[in-house]
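Its record is retained below.
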Amino acid sequence: MRYSPSPPLRLFRRFILSVEYNGLQGALAHSWHRLFSSLKNHGFSGTFERAFVKAPAAPPSPVRSSPHPFDLEHGTDTGGWISGGDLAASTLSALYSTIYLGIAPSAMRAALAVSPIAPDDYTFVDIGCGKGRALLIAAELPFRRLLGVELAPELCAIANANIALNPDWKSRISVMNGDATTFVYPEGPLFIFLYTPFLLPVVRRFQANLEGQLRRSPRPAYLLYANLFNTEADALADRSYPDTIEASSLFQRTFDTVYPLAPDEIMTERPDAKFLRFVLYRTGLAD
């Protein structure tokens, strides 16, 4: 069943995010504070309207409006900042989606360059591919096949439009509208990419799905995680995704590197974020 963003759904999603970051007690306290503040400022009817009829306007995007250099070079649309709460979906996994923000090409290329694989042996799978920028960058290498999995149909449509612009992309890349927690991976060696597309409850379900398939059909597999940070110290201190992934003995850390964004990428991505951390995991089932 497909559903679209609505004020009640946005409120419920906001509560789930608050639980994730603040715990249940903190989330309930924050929600009560917001409720009483809204009743004080807008009255009962205004609070009801904001909650169930028309949500207040979202804060301005932190992303500047100038096109990304990658899009200027290729004529694509991979830029922008889109909250997961503003996208339609068909499963409840969307309640835990984060944002769409394209990966910085300079850092992505650097991370792929030091990966210890022969790309022509592997299928590249971008989980939560959004508009497809990481897929287009990965296509610069001779991966055997490139697949994108994206929960939001709007982003799938944009990704497919981008892919159609280039005959090589069109012949090698495919994007499907689906849920990472139930996606069936193709046979053969896998190189899987995650740019923090969802919060930890879905990370665990994604990982369980992947691990189950790898144990049933053992083959070489790598998982590359990326996240964007304001400072290098913040990047190195982050433990949320790594701790979750490393809770399974199947995933063994291969490298952990922080790359600065190129100056022109800082100007067009989040202006306050300047570093990308990449952590590569090799499964115990890899050759």
